[in-house]
Every structure is written in structure tokens, then in C-alpha cells.
């Protein structure tokens, strides 16, 4: 199966118009590995990325945190890369690398001077074929993850909102999205070495992965190297996707969460939203921008600038494969009651539900999303990530060129309709986020 796509999109700005073109070719190896190539010889740099279609939602109950753990564990070393040498090899060859995990996928990538493309491909094939998963690596990365959780989640101000540890379990009852990406340390501590090996065998085969090579490449040579390094990797078992339906939220979930690391309380609303592939999810992106996207947004201007009742407004729209979440909130200024913040937020939501946004605001919104779209693909590293994401989670790699058309087609009436569909009081979590009371 081989397909070549050449599409173009045009950015319209107040200053000038220009066309940006993202060419890519995609094909599949016999072992199921999806390959996407993007050639751009304008600069001597190349990104090699592998996205595995496994995330926190694929973990078994009582064994949360595995996918994020593997984000760390698969840098430990391989049969041919000594333990602890991965980052040294990349740096010594002028490169950089990283990885990240979500509820739905895990992504690893290296960016090198283009004359080290072969090295990047070899390293990713080593990660897929020859990882060393042993007790010393598990124990080492267990401590790393614990420290990350302490630093980034447990001890981070508003960490329960940012990372969902104080939100997810209210929004989902059955779906694994009720858990968080970082999981619990109790689950990781309890896991045996054989369980980690089994998780790798189940999810990190070529048939559950997409390899992207973007940048200064020669396609013919690149395909030969890909074949040399990846074609012989055995196919893994067929991956069964999570298929769990949640009951709709029909009445307000009222809750309180306490945070040792804050002094300023916040009022938080959270709504469950549709899958990332849904057109409504794109409309909700625009709604988020209208309400809280920067200092010119409606909530900021009203609550921070005009009424001076909020120190800051916030929003975390989370697009996900099965369900999304839209979190909005405000930090109280002085002694402003959280109930007052909630009323002000609801007033702005109600306006979206009853009035069309102005033509001027609509055009500003379109310009913003045009700009965001171009910026996301302004580097080969960004293009590689976009290609992998659109292919793996959306099932449509062409969106790298066509997604902007979805935003362009969204009307003012669509914004009003979607606000009425999802942003209702009986469909949300109403959360008071409070400083932990001092012990008496």
C-alpha cells in the first residue's frame, strides 16, 4: 500500500498571502510499520520520530502509569547501546531528542544534522527491536518517575488541574481516562518485571507504530535504510483498542479539591467533550479561544481588566481520541467569592449560547487559527510530529494540509450551536479548588 500526497494551503494575513506546501509519502512495511517521509532540503537537518499507538488509556486497572513509564524506560539502553549512553550518543553527533506521552499515544524523536540520519534510524530500530528491560532499569526509572510526580504534579501549584489528578476521576466512571497519564506510584511499585516486559511485547511492535522521517533526506536512500533497519522486526500481536462508552453527565458534579501549594482559590468548570476527530471538537477549540485565549479574550477582559474580580483566567482544552475535556476557570482576586467567579463565567458562556459573535471577532479568530496552523508546521520537527499525530490518532495524514479548512468552514452559528450542545450546567463538574486548610 503506497500513497503520495501533495497538498497546499494558503495563509491569509493582514500583511501578505503566501502558500506553504507539505509534501509527504506514506507506505507500509510487511510487518505493519507505517512509514511517512517528508523531504525538505532547505536546511541540513532531519527529524526521525516514532509514534506508538499506546497511552495511559491502554493500561490495565491497578497498573496505571505504564505508558508514561515506558517513555523513560526505553531510553535505558538496548542490546547494542550501553545503559545510560542514549543521550550521550545523540549529543555527541550534534543532535537532540525527547519523548512525550498522552492518554492515547507515545512519541519518541531525534533531530540530527542530516548526515546522521542513518544513526537516528538505527537508534529507533534498536529501541523497537532490542530494548533492555531489566530490574535495574525499572528500579532506576521508578525513582525518576517518582521525582517527576513530586516535582511536576504533587508539589506544583494547581497541579491537580493542570495534570488532571483532581479532575479526571470526576469526569469518567468506566473509561480509563479516569486515570492520569503519570499514574500512581503504588501501581508502579507493585508491578513485576515480567509485567513491564509483557506491556512492551503487547504495544511496541512495528504494527502499532508510525515512523516519520522529515527534513533533508534523499528518499531512495532513506527507504533503503528503513528497510535495512526495520523490515526484519517481527510483527507484534494485534492491538485491541479501548472501546468503553461513558454514560452522559446529566447533572452538575459538585466537588472540592485542596492543594497544599496554593494560597489563591479558583473556581473551575469542566465539561466532557467529543472525540478529537469530531467537527464539534474543532468548534470547541475556537470557543476556548474566545473565552480565555489571551488578554483580549472575553473572560480576561471582563473578569481581570474590568471587574478586577479575578487575578487570572485559565483554560485547558484537552482533545483526546475517545472523549475530550474542556476545563475553564478563574483565580480569585482578593476576597472575591468563588460563587461570584462562577456567575461571571456563566454570563460569558450564556452570551455565546444566545448571541452570535461579531464579524470582527470572528475574523480575528480565523486569523489566529491560520497563524497557529502555520506555526505548528514551521520546522521539520513540528512537521514530523504533525504527520505522526494526524496519521495515528486521526487516521488522515492529509490533515497536515487540510485541517485549516475545517476551521475556516466553522461559522458563527456553529459556535453558538456547539456552546448550547456542550456548555451546560447539568453536564459539568463545578469544582472549588482551595488552599489546604491549616491544621488547628
Description of the molecule:
The chain is of the alpha+beta class. 41% of the residues lie in helices and 22% in strands. It is built from 16 helices and 12 strands. The strands form 2 sheets. Strands 1-2-3-7-4-6-5 form a 7-stranded mixed β-sheet, sandwiched between helices. A hairpin with a 5-residue loop joins strand 2 (17-28) and strand 3 (34-39). Helix 10 (279-292) packs across helix 16, helix 11 runs antiparallel to helix 12 (338-354) and helix 12 packs across helix 16 (412-422). The longest helix has 20 residues, at 135-154. The protein starts with a strand and ends in a 5-residue tail after the last strand. Mean pLDDT is 94; it is low at 1-19.
Highlighted features:
7-stranded mixed β-sheet; 440 residues; alpha+beta
Summarize the SSE layout with pairings.
Blueprint (H helix, E strand, L loop, with lengths): L1 E11 L4 E12 L5 E6 L5 E8 L13 H8 L12 H7 L3 E6 L4 E8 L3 H13 L5 H20 L4 H4 L5 H4 L13 H6 L2 H11 L5 E7 L3 H12 L22 E7 L6 E8 L5 H14 L5 H9 L3 E9 L5 E9 L5 H17 L4 H18 L3 H15 L4 H11 L2 H11 L5 E8 L5
Parallel strand pairs: 3-7, 8-12
Antiparallel strand pairs: 1-2, 2-3, 4-6, 4-7, 5-6, 9-11, 9-12, 10-11
Helix pairs in contact: 3-9, 10-16, 11-12, 12-16, 13-15
Amino acid at each position: 500500500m503506497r500513497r503520495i500526497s501533495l497538498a497546499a494551503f494558503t495563509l491569509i494575513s493582514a500583511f501578505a498571502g503566501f502558500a506553504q506546501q507539505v509534501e509527504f509519502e506514506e507506505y507500509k512495511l510487511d510487518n505493519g510499520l507505517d512509514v511517512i517521509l517528508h523531504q525538505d532540503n532547505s536546511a541540513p537537518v532531519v527529524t526521525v520520530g516514532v509514534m506508538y499507538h499506546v497511552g495511559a488509556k491502554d493500561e490495565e486497572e491497578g497498573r496505571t502509569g505504564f505508558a508514561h513509564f515506558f517513555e523513560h524506560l526505553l531510553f535505558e539502553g538496548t542490546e547494542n547501546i550501553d545503559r545510560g549512553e542514549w543521550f550521550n550518543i545523540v549529543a555527541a553527533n550534534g543532535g537532540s531528542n525527547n519523548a512525550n506521552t498522552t492518554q492515547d499515544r507515545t512519541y519518541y524523536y531525534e533531530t540530527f544534522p542530516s548526515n546522521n540520519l542513518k544513526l537516528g534510524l538505527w537508534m529507533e530500530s534498536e529501541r523497537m527491536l532490542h530494548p533492555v528491560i531489566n530490574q535495574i532499569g525499572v528500579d532506576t526509572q521508578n525513582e525518576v518517575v517518582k521525582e517527576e510526580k513530586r516535582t511536576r504534579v504533587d508539589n506544583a501549584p494547581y497541579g491537580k488541574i493542570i495534570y488532571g489528578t483532581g479532575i479526571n476521576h470526576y469526569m469518567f466512571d468506566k473509561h480509563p481516562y479516569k486515570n492520569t497519564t503519570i499514574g500512581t506510584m503504588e501501581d508502579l511499585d507493585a508491578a513485576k518485571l515480567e509485567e513491564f516486559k509483557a506491556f512492551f511485547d503487547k504495544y511496541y511492535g512495528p504494527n502499532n507504530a508510525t515512523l516519520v522521517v522529515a527534513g533533508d533526506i534523499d528518499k531512495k536512500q532513506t527507504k533503503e535504510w528503513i528497510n535495512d533497519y526495520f523490515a526484519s522486526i517481527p510483527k507484534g500481536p494485534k492491538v485491541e483498542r479501548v472501546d468503553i462508552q461513558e454514560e452522559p453527565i446529566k447533572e452538575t458534579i459538585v466537588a472540592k479539591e485542596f492543594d497544599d501549594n496554593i494560597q489563591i482559590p479558583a473556581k473551575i468548570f469542566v465539561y466532557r467533550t467529543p472525540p478529537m476527530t469530531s467537527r464539534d471538537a474543532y468548534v470547541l477549540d475556537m470557543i476556548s479561544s474566545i473565552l480565555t485565549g489571551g488578554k483580549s479574550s472575553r473572560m480576561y477582559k471582563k473578569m481581570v481588566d474590568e471587574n478586577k474580580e479575578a487575578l487570572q483566567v485559565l483554560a485547558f482544552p484537552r482533545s483526546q481520541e475517545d472523549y475530550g475535556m474542556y476545563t475553564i476557570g478563574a483565580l480569585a482576586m482578593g476576597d472575591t467569592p468563588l460563587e461570584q467567579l462562577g456567575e461571571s463565567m456563566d454570563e460569558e458562556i450564556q452570551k455565546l449560547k444566545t448571541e452570535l459573535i461579531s464579524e470582527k471577532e470572528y475574523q480575528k479568530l480565523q486569523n489566529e487559527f491560520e497563524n497557529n496552523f502555520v506555526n505548528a508546521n514551521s520546522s521539520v520537527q513540528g512537521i514530523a510530529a504533525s504527520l505522526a499525530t494526524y496519521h495515528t490518532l486521526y487516521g488522515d495524514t492529509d490533515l497536515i494540509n487540510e485541517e485549516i479548512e475545517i476551521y475556516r468552514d466553522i461559522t458563527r452559528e456553529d459556535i453558538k450551536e456547539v456552546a448550547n450542545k456542550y456548555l451546560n450546567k447539568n453536564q459539568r463538574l463545578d469544582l472549588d479548588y482551595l488552599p489546604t486548610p491549616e491544621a488547628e
